[in-house]
Amino acid sequence: MSGNVSEIVWDIWGTLPGGTLTDPAGPQSGQNRARRNGGIQNGQSMQNLIWRGSITPSTIGRDLGMRVAQTGNPLPSAATPIFSLPSGFYTSEQTIQISCSTPGAQIYYTLDGSYPTTQTGIYYQNPLAVHEPVMLRAVAYQDNMNPSLEAHGVYNVIRYPGQNFVLVEGGTFNNGSSNVTLSSFWIDRYELTQISFLAVTGRNPSHFIGNSTRAAERISWFDVIEYCNKRSILEGLNPCYSYSANGVNLGTDVESWPQGWSASNVNHQNIICNWNANGYRMPTEMEWLFAAKGGNLSHGYPYSGGNDINSVAWYYNNSQSLGLSSPDYGPHPGGHKTGNELNIFDMTGNLIEWCWDIYGAYSSTDQTNPTGAGTGTYRVCRGGSWVCMDYQSYLHMRGYNPPTVLDFFVGARIARNAQ
Amino acid sequence: MNTQYRTIIVIALISLTLLLKLGDLNGLAEHKVLRDPQIPQTISITYSGNSIILNWSPSQEATSYKVYSSEFPDSGFSEDSSGIYSDNSWSAPISEQKKFYYVTAISDDVNDRMVYVQGGTFQTGSATVTLSSYYIDKYETTQGDWTNAYGYNPVEGISWPVITDIGNQYPMFYITWYDAVKFCNRKSLSENLSPVYSYFRYGIDYGSDPDFWPRDWDASHSYQQNVICNWTAAGYRLPTEMEWLFAAKGGTHSLGYTYSGSNTVDEVAWYNMNAGGNTHPVGQLGSNELGLF
User: Fold this and answer.
1) pLDDT at B7
2) ipTM for the whole complex
3) CA dist., res. B85 & res. B74, Å (int)
């Protein structure tokens, strides 16, 4: 225990108290932690058992290590709950039973990705009916026992393709520079959620953990491409995107695309969209704008769904400005603000949303189904976010980012052709 | 169980005369697998100046190795303390009394690592401290432990400075207190034990699975207060400072040494005068009264 690495211990650093102590665990508060004995970089005096030192909780060192301990007489834990259904993709409503082999244990669960305590969880009584994508977490509690290990599962229940999508009837509108005519398309009422991204890609890159029904952020434009194709394949639709390298089309299976395809901005023009496919895709910028304005039902509001940004959007004043400790800090689950004329939510605020288009100047001539600039460095993203001021959130405002950008205010919304 | 696999006997011909003939005598180098065949498959011998160097193929299961030597091929073997171990190799001065060697791969079960420390009362400074019984790892947490919990060894990914003390038996280093806390829970979960640490922030209980902790759970020094320890859980945790000290002193068996296990620092500790700037595989120097290294 003397030498080799200096060993991190639990206690907050402070003067050792005198008197009689039973199972002391250090001071209640403080900035630093204790460590004992020196390491390979220290001299003999620091190997003496009386030596003690301190570190911040973020200190690293060439000879700073650890050793584990265990309580001698631990309380037993309740048995881990068991789900009757494996995680996976399901095309019809599912029933999930939760059981626990500890007699009398009470099971608490959540469906939103938060940790189920006896206060925040739902007390399990009857089998769960699941008809949309959920993350199920469950813990068993029993008096005089520790809580069980948690069980969790991801159930990607999509009863029919395009569940929760809105049909945006085709029409003509003016984007400020020219008239744009669009064919009908489907668009998701809600921004892409963490649960759906996780269920489809197996990853949850979002920063805001704890409620996975939140809109997914820290997803790049490439991540959305991957999500769209994988989800299309899962649901039996034709994927829209393929990857072309050196003149060779590598097809729509993301797993067969070159290693690192999504890591470099320069690859973005290798992605080709098949506009006739029935699978999932990003909206074009003009589809996004038309839907945000309320399509043919537009009232011409400056924000999507109204004149009062506070009633339709999560933005700086009602989110970021409240500070880290506020539950409203950060992106929200969809549907907590008023929807727009088409009952689509959060097109202003919450998260900036990736669109397909390469960023370029608006055309001054009328167009039909435009898909953006032919070449360029950036991809369009629209709609303001929880960190944007009201004057940064008007529907006419355009944004753009390099396609690899990850930010905790950038997410996505998914569309489909209407044929 | 502390499983020792005696795997290979290497008959080494040590004297300089015989060394010259080693090429001819390769056939005499007897590779005898006595027990489990997955532990060192091959051993080679080289000589450098007045030293003999044994190299063996690494075993994934091994947490450490021991070299035994004898003057005779089938008797008189004892653990050879004259050499210096590094990862999968050992070197020692050439000796006429040591002509035969074998290497033992030691595979510690997870449970064997944890030594029961009978509770008791001891004096430290001006305090009289009474501790309940607990378990403590006989070794420092190793890079192998880290690999078991995370699937990779973070030390291998360090490109600068150049690090040579890399391997399953070496202690883990370059870790923060936060890393240590998270590792404890990961290790607990990997063994289906109830994790000790939970994370709370702004009134939200994030539970004890670090996968579900906020991404920035360790981004500020002040967040250390968000880590809550459940002292009744069965999983792994950091020792308290007093648990560490009581164990280091030998617990109720303490002989009152200055260093853990000895009054002679070189017998028990790698430090700046004997370590050569590198950490060393755990368990190579002397242990203390409780068998802790």
Assistant:
1) 39
2) 0.91
3) 24
Neighbouring CB atoms inside 10 A of A269's CB total: 14
CA distance B240 to chain A (A): 5
Q: Which of A67, A82, A148 to mutate to test the interface with B (most CBs of B within 10 A)?
A: A67
Strand partners, B114: B137
CB contact under 8 A, A74 and B216: no
The verdict on a CB contact (< 8 Å) between A207 and B216 is yes
pLDDT averaged over every residue in chain A: 96
Whether residues A4 and B171 touch (CB distance < 8 A) is answered with: yes
Place of tokens 């890159």: A205
pLDDT digits (tens, 9 = 90+) for A78-122: 999 999 999 999 999 999 999 999 999 999 999 999 999 999 999
Chain A, nearest residue to B175 by Cα: A60
pLDDT digits (tens, 9 = 90+) for B58-103: 766 666 777 888 888 777 777 888 888 887 888 888 888 887 887 7
Distance of alpha carbon B225 from alpha carbon B215, whole angstroms: 16
Asked if B205 and A37 come within 8 Å (Cβ–Cβ), the reply is no
Interface of A with B in 61-80 (CB under 8 A): 61-77, 80
Task: Calculate how close chain A gets to B83, using CA atoms only, in Å.
Answer: 18
B139 pLDDT more than 60: yes
Strand pairing category for A179-182 and A367-368: parallel
Q: What is the pTM of this model?
A: 0.82
Find chain A residues with C-beta within 8 A of B139's C-beta.
67
Task: Mutate one of B115, B188, B194 to test the A interface: name it (highest A CB count within 10 A).
Answer: B194
Amino acid identity of residue A281, one-letter, is: R
* Mean pLDDT computed over every residue of chain B: 83
Residue of A nearest to B128 (CA): A20
Name the token pair of B244.
Answer: 């560490």
Q: Is B246 helix (H, G, I), strand (E, B) or coil?
A: helix
In the structure encoding, which two tokens stand for residue B172, read together? 């883990």
Phi-psi domain of A113 (left: phi exceeds 0; alpha: psi -120 through 50; beta: other): left
Residue B34 has pLDDT above 50, yes or no: no
Question: 10 Å Cβ neighbour count for A234?
Answer: 17
Find the range with the poorest average confidence among A125-134, A278-287, B12-21, B67-76.
B12-21
The residue type of A416 is R
Contact A20 B137 (CB under 8 A): no
The pLDDT value given to residue B108: 54
Q: What SS3 state is found at B178?
A: helix
Distance CA A18, CA A33 (A): 19
Terminal-residue alpha carbon distance, chain B: 18
| Cα–Cα distances in angstroms (integers) from residue B88 to residues A325, B64, B83, B171, in the given order | 51, 9, 13, 15
CB burial string A38-68: b at 16+ within 10 A, e below: bbbbbebebbbbeebbebebbbebbbbbbbb
